Amino acid sequence: MTGTVVVAVAAPLWVTAEAARAGADFDPASFPSYRAWLRELMGRHRTLRGRLDSVALRGEPVRVLDRPGDGVVTVELPEQPNGRSGYVGHVRAAHLGPDRRRAVTHVVAPANGPAAGLAAGSTVQLLGPPVGGAAPVLLPSGERTTCPAAALRPLGPPAPAPELLRIATGFLGVPYVWGGTDDAGIDCSGLVHLAARIGGHRVPRDAHLQWADTRIDADWGDLRPGDLLFFGAGASLDGIDHVGLYAGGGRMLHAPEEGRAVTLEPLSDRARRRAVAFGRLATAA
């Protein structure tokens, strides 16, 4: 294959080139795992608001827009829609490289465990049948490794709503991280975006744009498991500030806020009062 992709376990998308440069001596590759790096990063900063915009995953295509220097590149992430373009920000050049796979066949679902070294949402090329539950795969860097076969989802048509909810449930217990887009740390819109992306849907990265893309005219009694719940000051691009997935039975699956983790919980009276709109993916059934 051709094109530039993320070849590291993940590529943090920093808001400014200065923030990316500041991380030059604080690279995920220098830690035992990406999760260990993220824990250390959160220990240094009480919040990543204003620092981290999103995270690009292994195998994710990037469009290089500029090279400010000092090992930093300005990129667009086409698979993370943000209005008329993909998310734009700054990453370390060392996290990018040519795609050495012949084809992309599977995406890693959140059933994956930390030992596999592949974040949920990473894409791979399957090389053969699994042996003892482990499937041989080719990473975008050209490295061969194995991944739990149960964690691999073939690329294909968009999944129906129940399957999307099942995918999202795999993120239960993942800590809330502002800008997080993987199973080491995730925010509310990142949870919806990544679950949908693993399920074959193209969904914007941010909650207010997810509302604009999926909104439906419905009441509480019309909701199906896998529908989206939007919260905020009003049903508008400026008013939406949170999103979750309706899990049926009056429950919601969401990444609540900093200091908490992805949870499945009953919709409280306060949550029902703050709900301003509902959404449904067009091909979900």
Automatic annotation (TrEMBL):
Transmembrane segments: none annotated. Keywords: Hydrolase, Protease, Thiol protease. One of its GO terms (molecular function) is cysteine-type peptidase activity. Residues 158-282 form the NlpC/P60 domain. Signal peptide: none annotated. GO terms for biological process: proteolysis. InterPro entries: NLP_P60_dom, Papain-like_cys_pep_sf, Peptidase_C40. The keyword rRNA-binding does not apply. It comes from the Bacteria. PANTHER family: MUREIN DD-ENDOPEPTIDASE MEPH-RELATED. Belongs to the peptidase C40 family. This is NlpC/P60 domain-containing protein. It comes from Jiangella anatolica. The lineage of its organism: Bacteria, Bacillati, Actinomycetota, Actinomycetes, Jiangellales.
